[in-house]
Amino acid sequence: MDLGEVKAYVHAHIPITACLEADFTEYSGDALVVEAPLEANINHRHSAFGGSMSAIGILSGWGLLFIKLRELGMENTLVIQSSSFEFGKPAVASFQAVAKIPSPEKFERFVKMLKRKGRARLGVESEIFCEGEKVGVHRGEYVALLLDQS
Predict the structure, then answer these.
(1) Is the pTM for the entire model greater than 0.90?
(2) Under DSSP, is residue 101 helix (H, G, I), strand (E, B) or coil?
(3) Alpha-carbon distance 1 to 84, whole Å?
(4) Nearest CA to 66 among 75, 53, 57?
(5) pLDDT tens per residue, range 83-108
(6) How many domains does the chain contain in total?
(7) Which domain holds residue 109?
(8) Rounded to an integer, what distance in angstroms lies between the CA atom of residue 94 and that of residue 128?
């Protein structure tokens, strides 16, 4: 799936992502990188606003599952059910969230459950980096609901 198309879809359907200037920069099949510039996400301390870092973390996990399920031809509704963010250090420049599939086995179970029950959930972790250094970790539980394909 073309990352430019993903970005256009996300900015059109989740407007805050355009305000955050979120950009989908790399996808490997098992990982997705979402980048955001400091200028659009700055706080009063001249570092990235914590809410922006958390939102980019959520978006990276959501985007990874969105792309993978689209690749499988599974029309679905995907939402975040729970979210936590661990702040390590301030991000003082552009920052990136790197979301990774937890394991091929967990993802396969997730897909099988989605096909069988029409609903499944999966935990995805995203690490947040700034200038090559890890500055935070997002943990999200995402729920997919299979849409009627009849």
Answers:
(1) yes
(2) coil
(3) 28
(4) 75
(5) 999 999 999 999 999 999 999 999 99
(6) 1
(7) 3-146
(8) 11
